[in-house]
TrEMBL record:
It is a multi-pass membrane protein. One of its GO terms (molecular function) is symporter activity. It catalyses: L-serine(in) + H(+)(in) = L-serine(out) + H(+)(out). The chain crosses the membrane at residues 32-50, 56-74, 107-127, 147-165, 177-195, 222-244, 265-287, 307-329, 362-382, 388-406, 418-439. Keywords: Amino-acid transport, Cell inner membrane, Cell membrane, Membrane, Symport, Transmembrane, Transmembrane helix, Transport. It is found in: Cell inner membrane. The keyword Ribonucleoprotein does not apply. This is HAAAP family serine/threonine permease. It comes from the Bacteria.
Amino acid sequence: MSQSNVYTPEASVQAGQAAAGKSAWTRQDTTWMLGLYGTAVGAGTLFLPINAGIGGFWPLLVMLVLAWPLTYFAHRGLNRFVLSGSTRDGDITEVVEEHFGLTAGKLITLLYFFAIYPILLVYSVAITNTVMSFLTNQFGIQLGNDIVTRGIFALGLILALMSVVRLGGEFIVKAMSVLVFPFVAALMLLALYLVPHWNSSMIDQAGTFSAAVSSGAFWKTLWLAIPVMVFSFNHSPIISSFAVDQKKLHPGCEDAASNRTLSRAHIMMVASVFFFVFSCVLSLSPADLAEAKAQNLSILSYLANHFQNPIIAWVAPLIAIVAISKSFFGHYLGAKEGFNGLVIKELRQRGKTIDTAKLDRFTAVFMIVTTWIVATLNPNILGMIENLGGPVIAVLLFLMPMYAIYKVPAMKKYAGVASNIFVVAIGLIAISAIFYSLVF
């Protein structure tokens, strides 16, 4: 390794705090802030009001209080882990191997890939179903649902998404930052539209806070809601690309600069998403939320039917399409990174190498073929696949960076703070709640 390519995280972080004020906010920082937001706030947001609100008003209020620290501290830890690598262009798969060795590196890279790739498959099905439903219900175009028609339609949609992906990671981040604006605007306008429909039924049923916390139902609701919130704000697939770029954008103070970007992105996430969530919950009754849960509808679809509003009926699928597309792009970056890492590590073990451009083309073909097949077959096991990926995401996002703080010399400077205990606790709670939900 040449001396010019050596990156010393210890010296960097020592200088980082002093240089924090010297690193001006740039246009790239704004793009990354919106890109992080775009990856996190997507299709899952459309189910969050139902999944979070059905447990009652007081657990939802506690979730609001926990949302920012839960999201920020966890992603900051993962970002710091990637920054701790000894090279400026080392992504998470390279840093894992550097810190934990070849065997552990391959295992964690495999887990990283399978935590993200199944969600990409879920989005390929979701975008196909949403667009086909939109054309059928709003335009009256009868496409048919036979496997040939669906296959042709799914292929066209996935190729359209992949044509954006092929323009490169930087373009993907810019595309997500652009798509954020119509998505956020639509959510906020809908939230404001619902304000006149707010009612006190949810609060009336909640009773007093002291009475609520004394019941086992409150704590069980909060326990099971933690993973819902964790994965509604999860943008771990893009963190590695973000950290690598921060080393180039803010050399010498990348930790402080990236923390600033993360903090602002998470404030934006929590403020906008929870305003939308509370507006939806306060405009419906507990019985309405239970009905929406039973019908397995997104909150937009339920609101369109509940208020008999043709505008929502048109806008809802458009919001969903934008949300799914944003999330598809962000998760593709992570899935590609994991897949490439697996191939590179396997070839390296055999004493071989592969051209990066050639590997990217191979990865793109693999993603196109597999997402197309799954979108065409439309299997009913996708929810289970997504849930099974949940514990892996919790391990990689919450537990692995905290473990690295106490095992990796380059990260020991982050030890001894209360936020580490908080992150580990939330990670263990999320994993236990996910397994409970799967079993019961």
